[in-house]
C-alpha cells in the first residue's frame, strides 16, 4: 500500500488533509477534557451512486462518454483503495453498537490498494 494506517499524519500537505487532522485533534481534545468517548472513522475514496462529480471515477466516465481524453498521472501506475458506499454504510451500522473508548479511530477501507481493485481500471471506451 502507498500509505499505512501507522504512517504519521502530523504534518498534512494539503488543506483538505489539514481539516481531517484538525477534526481528529478536536475529537481527541473533547475526549480528554470531558471524558467523552469518541470514535473517529477514516473513509478511503468512497464511490457509488450520487458520488461527487469531481472525483476521478466520475470525471473519467464523463470524459469517455463525451469522447474526450483524460489526464493520467504517475504514468498510469496509480494505486488507491476505493470503498463502495454500501460498505461504508455497513461499517457505520456495525460500529454503532461498539462501545467507544477514549480516542478510538477506525479506518474503513477494503485493504486492497491496487490498480486491479480500482473501479477506474474497469472503465473501457468502446465505439
From TrEMBL:
GO molecular function: dTDP-glucose 4,6-dehydratase activity
Highest taxon above the source species: Bacteria
Keyword annotations of the record: Lyase, NAD
Keyword Zinc found: no
EC number: 4.2.1.46
InterPro entries: Epimerase_deHydtase (IPR001509), NAD(P)-bd_dom_sf (IPR036291)
Record-annotated NAD-dependent epimerase/dehydratase domain positions: 8-95
Transmembrane helix as UniProt keyword: no
Enzyme class at the top of the EC tree: lyase
Parts forming coiled coils: none
This protein's name: VI polysaccharide biosynthesis protein vipB/tviC
Organism annotation: Escherichia coli
Amino acid at each position: 500500500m502507498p500509505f499505512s494506517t501507522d504512517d504519521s499524519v502530523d504534518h498534512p500537505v494539503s488543506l483538505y488533509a489539514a481539516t481531517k487532522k484538525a477534526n481528529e485533534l478536536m475529537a481527541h481534545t473533547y475526549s480528554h477534557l470531558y471524558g467523552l468517548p469518541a470514535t473517529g472513522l477514516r473513509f478511503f475514496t468512497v464511490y457509488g451512486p450520487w458520488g461527487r462529480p469531481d472525483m476521478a471515477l466520475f470525471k473519467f466516465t464523463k470524459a469517455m462518454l463525451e469522447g474526450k481524453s483524460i489526464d493520467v498521472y504517475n504514468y498510469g501506475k496509480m494505486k488507491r483503495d476505493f470503498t463502495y458506499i454500501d460498505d461504508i454504510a455497513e461499517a457505520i451500522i456495525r460500529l454503532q453498537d461498539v462501545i467507544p473508548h477514549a480516542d478510538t479511530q477506525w479506518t474503513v477501507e477494503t485493504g486492497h490498494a491496487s490498480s486491479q481493485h480500482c473501479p477506474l481500471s474497469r472503465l473501457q471506451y468502446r465505439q
